[in-house]
Amino acid sequence: MPATTRTTLRRGLAAAAALPLLIGALASCGYGSDAKNDEKKVAAEGKKLSADTVRLGYFPNLTHATALIGVQDGLIQKELGGTTLKPQTFNAGPSEIEALNGGSLDIGFIGPSPSINAYVKSKGSNLRIISGSASGGVKLVVNPDKIKTLDDLKGKRIATPQKGNTQDVALLNWIAEKGWKVDPESGKGDVSVVRTDNKVTPDAFKSGSIDGAWVPEPTASKLVSQGGKVLLDETSLWPDKKFVITNIIVSQKFLTEHPDVVEAVLTGTVKTNEWINANPDKAKASANAALKSLGGKALAAKVIDPAWPSITITNDPLAATLKTQSEWAVKAQLIKQPELSGIYDLKLLNKVLKAAGEPEVSDAGLGVK
Questions:
Q1: Residue 368 pLDDT > 50, yes or no?
Q2: Nearest to 62 by CA among 220, 205, 195
Q3: I need a labelling partner for 327 at 20 to 30 A (CA). Which of 117, 177, 219, 302 fits?
Q4: What is the pLDDT of residues 315-355, one digit of tens each?
Q5: Cβ(360)–Cβ(353) below 8 Å
Q6: How many helices (H) and strands (E) does the chain have?
Q7: pLDDT value, residue 303
Q8: Phi–psi pair at 130, nearest 5 degrees
């Protein structure tokens, strides 16, 4: 993993290594279901910050490993002291945004497309992106009997998780660059883009109702375990092979009223990322144990082994790639030209990184002035 994507919070690593392994929730990425309250409430100890509680949302998803491990291992709670961390899990970007807008969520882990959509629809009034979390972990997997080359995608049925979501936008852009046409609303055209919940995509692939899918992990590796072939890793399409797949957002109201709490959460996520990157095998094993505990079934080694290393855990929000993703959505006619100025506020993250002797990260000119 590139050194620039790693933190060097050695004191945080020492503390983290002594903490229990992940007991949290990791499952395949899905969309379309409602939020569920996480019953686990971590006991708060120490000095209370400016808020009694902070409500943190995230997905039971491999690309949300920072939140999953940080919450369940107590790394974030440790930084909050007497302020209680109240976690919630979501399976849908819109549900998480609705919770943030409705005041039942303060901070959340979410993909770039929902962040852009929510920011634009609110005319820049509801959220800020305050950190990165993960890069990569998205692949085009196909039925090798039907599709042998990228040109063979023409006329085939390719699944994405949801209309306008991050993978959907990437596929539509790739199709356009091939010179092919697809209606962004219906998904019909030279390639049939089939919007399918990631939870049912493996069954759809197995039944032959789709010929392939542009999906995040571990869905991609599940398809490979069923005989699929990785035809394209999306990282190959990006400069430096990095692009944002998960970032951290905050309610602007909460950020204004409780910056000390937000800073504490970010300190916890930075330390969590250090532990994950320093202990990839332990983190992977912890994730699978958690999945078995919560869902009754762990991911098979042939699924989690290729899925885990394809995701890069990073504090950098990779803001330039979010800007590119928004341009792709405009090009696909899914959104109008957005005004993204002010979507980032990285001051607290850079404060945490500076204290650790780490270089600051960039907002690509889209930060709060």
A1: yes
A2: 220
A3: 219
A4: 999 999 999 999 999 999 988 888 999 999 999 999 999 99
A5: yes
A6: 14, 12
A7: 94
A8: -115, -5
